[in-house]
Amino acid sequence: MNGNLLLRITVAIILLTHSVFGMFNNGINDFGNLFLNQIGFAPFGVFLAWSIKLSHVIAAILLLINKYVKLAGFVTIFVLIMGIIMVHFKEGWFVVGGGRNGVEYNFLLIAVLLAIMFPDGIKSKVE
Question: Any residues with CB less than 8 A from the CB of 38 and at least 6 apart, and which?
């Protein structure tokens, strides 16, 4: 198993577990109603919350089947950056330990997604 495959499987598991459980415990609706609607996305908070989570599920599937990996990565990175801006940045760096609900987890996922999307690095056309 090569490193890229291992990262794709790992990120897919993370995206799926982060999304699927919320589909069955009302977490997605709560996020839409109790957070997104409250910060100005009403009446579209629940729709937006479901769109975010479904994008994670689709991205996970695409990573697992190794299709449209860059598209899945860019969409997921956009969602993660918006999460940093809207939720995590004000909480600081740490998810646990030195703080709570910070940016470190999203930061790591963004770096891993970039490594998956560009396994040979980003090369310029001019050399």
Answer: 45
DSSP 31: I
Locate 125 and state its tokens: 């056309």
Structure tokens, 113 = 């997604």
Helix, strand, coil percentages in the chain from 3-state DSSP, rounded to 5: 75, 0, 25
**Collapsing DSSP states into helix, strand and coil, what is residue 72?**
helix
Q: What is the pTM for the complete model shown?
A: 0.91
How does pLDDT run across 52-95, given as a tens digit for each residue?
999 999 999 999 999 999 999 999 999 999 999 999 999 999 99
8: its two tokens: 């794709």
